[in-house]
User: Fold these one by one.
Assistant:
Number 1:
Amino acid sequence: MSLPVEFIKKYQNLLGEEESNKFFAAIDSSSKKGFRLNPLKNNYHDVQYSLADPIEFTSDGYYGGISGRDSEWTSGYVYSQDPSAMYPAVALNVKPGEKVLDLCAAPGGKSTALASFLENKGLLVANEISKSRAKDLRENLERWGATNVVVTNESPERLSKKLPNFFDKILVDAPCSGEGMFRKDPAAMQYWSPEYVLTCQARQKEILTQAMKMLKADGELVYSTCTYSPEEDEEIVAWLVENYHLKIEPLKLYPGMSMGKSDWSKSNLPELKDTVRLWFQNGVGEGQFVAHLRNTEAVEDASSKVKKRKKKHQKKSSITRLTKDEITTVAKVLDNFVLPDSLENWQKTVLQSNGHVFVPAVDPELLNELHILNNGVELGLLKKKRFEPSHQLAEVLGQKEQKQLLNLKNETDYEHYLHGETIKVNSELRGFVLVAYQNHIFSFGKIGNDQILKNFYPKGLRK
Ligand SMILES: C[S@@+](CC[C@H](N)C(=O)[O-])C[C@H]1O[C@@H](n2cnc3c(N)ncnc32)[C@H](O)[C@@H]1O
């Protein structure tokens, strides 16, 4: 692989001859594949993959590959992720019930892990600035089937204006120069230059400035990149410590992880050694840098920021409550299924917007004027006296053992269903059913008296 000359010189200088040779040789070796299972799903270990090689530092991560056609994937039982990239979400140490923000979230590798750790309790706001990438993020989180997720497509600046001092935990998995991706995706090299590294550094500071506005006075921040450049790693952490009331929290070093390099930052701050670097040559996965910081700002200082917020005149919302009759119509369908605990009292909080019935994860008023792709669980669509359950609900219902369930009998039927075709079935069930393959629920369908399974797999997802 032909690395940029200035890149070679830089790392020879930083690492010395012996270690830089190992580093360059490792860039030419094959990359490591990993996947994470989804503990939110029913019998979540029931997958076709070998679980013989677990990744030590996370609960549900394993070495190995998966395919996007597998029923484990379409049903959200599994997510393919570089093993090193599993560490930032672990480092944030999220507890059920907390309010968590993943500010640079697409395609959702870390958001899906954060949703697992929250166990449907508290809130995850997964934000992505790019419209097309935000769509992928929404789809990946939809498959994951958590009930407490909001997906936004916003700039950090607009988000921070709405949600000052709001989050207990924030992950900034920043856009970076991507040196840690050179092995897996050599095309990443074409953008690299010393100037590009500095452009990334400036953007990271802008993003973090907004993140800090949203962090609670006693909140915690994880900053991560998939690059090795000290300008985007230790230098950024030193900048955070110098400009905010942030303290570096030591991260646990697992085999294959290295300490951050204090002497690679101009500040030479000794605590920088408590950050973590994952090098190709150390065998965990691709390149990653992770830092965990705690806000130690006095609570009074932070609350004064909230008071400064002006109450602007808000646009009239299209969101309304449901009538009793509408609730009955929805309940008639939902009563056939076992809901996760977090949706048991759905009648109390359910809302609708132009017929889209949803159980919000957060009061929609709070997010007024933001670009929201998902708020909680869309239960389905009310069409006059009829209710059609949503695809998202099918993925959510995969959390529980279900009776109103049709297991497709072979791979051909599964492939046909993914393609959007109807299937002739032999079943007593009628009306809306959950459709599964190998017990992995991945869609709704509807069976009529003719025993034809009508296809409700969304057009946008068909393969
Ligand atoms: C490293 S990727 C995130 C990967 C993601 N956390 C995951 O685990 O799947 C960085 C993300 O930051 C987004 N991004 C780029 N410029 C940004 C900006 N100025 N503010 C916020 N996010 C930005 C990119 O679109 C990209 O999706």
Note: The domain at 403-463 is CATH 2.30.130.60 (Archaeosine Trna-guanine Transglycosylase; Chain: A, domain 4).
Number 2:
Amino acid sequence: MMRSKLLSLVPCATGPFRTMSTTTKLTTVEVNDKTGIATLTMNRPPVNGLNLDLLRDLRQSIAEIEGNKSRGLILTSSNPTIFSAGLDIMEMYKPDKERVRAFWTALQDAWLALYGSSVPTAAAINGHSPAGGCLLATSCEYRVMLPKFTIGLNETKLGIVAPMWFMSSFLSVLPRREAERALNQGRMFTTDEALQIGLVDEAAGTKEEALEKCAQFIGTFAKVNPIARALTKQQFRAAELEQLESERAQDLEKFLFFINQPAVQKGLGIYLESLKKKAKN
Ligand SMILES: CCCCC/C=C\C/C=C\C=C\CC(=O)SCCNC(=O)CCNC(=O)[C@H](O)C(C)(C)COP(=O)(O)OP(=O)(O)OC[C@H]1O[C@@H](n2cnc3c(N)ncnc32)[C@H](O)[C@@H]1OP(=O)(O)O
């Protein structure tokens, strides 16, 4: 994919400074040359639905951030009210056989890249973050969320079962008892509830403040040996990463089998209809 490079002047809390910015249609990477922190912004209107292209783009941007020696990665959204609506249901509803395989493989790749990223990661959750959106946020090491939005793994409410590795990300943030109950209930948490339970680390009043708080978190590693930090993080996350790496073919087949069940297709169709009806009203 062609990626256009440009230098731009952007304002921030500490005043205007130069950032190196790489843009594709679906994500933007901006590296602050003062802090060395990269902001990875999802930009797929209308709701940052995670389709094949956005997932591939995310993975490519994560690799780019690791390759350009950034000091950290902040994941956020260009949409002022939606971080990500999760997986694009259109990829799973009446799917094309080859594309849906590529789609799930791209999701596995994006998760492995983000959860296993060698750089410190934080999510500035500047909007709603259901299901796959919550997966991305909980794959990061730190979360700052804006008020009056919701976050959670709502899969059971859609008649879907979250795979083990979705649970792994959730479990790396929440105590097992809370995670199990929330997943079984398909519970969406408000910002206040998420803060109280520990699903997010901090609340912020504005996106700029959220980005600043994420940057402060990444700054806490300034005096830590980066190789020791990266290896320590990888040791903590190795079991979950290795589990998916070693079982990804079976995971794909399980997904395909599950998604092709007539009852699951029917449920997704009804859910899509309800979303479209709501959007019209
Ligand atoms: C043991 C075996 C295990 C094997 C594994 C098997 C299966 C696992 C499979 C799947 C896992 C899936 C995880 C997911 O991520 S599923 C997606 C879940 N997401 C949601 O439920 C969110 C739905 N969306 C919303 O709640 C709202 O849209 C939102 C709060 C995000 C935003 O609200 P807003 O009012 O601003 O916008 P809307 O008017 O609702 O939407 C605008 C537009 O976008 C469409 N849309 C919204 N979300 C999605 C989506 N996730 N996918 C596709 N399209 C979406 C919506 O329909 C509107 O479209 P249109 O009417 O304008 O065309």
Note: The chain has a mean pLDDT of 92.
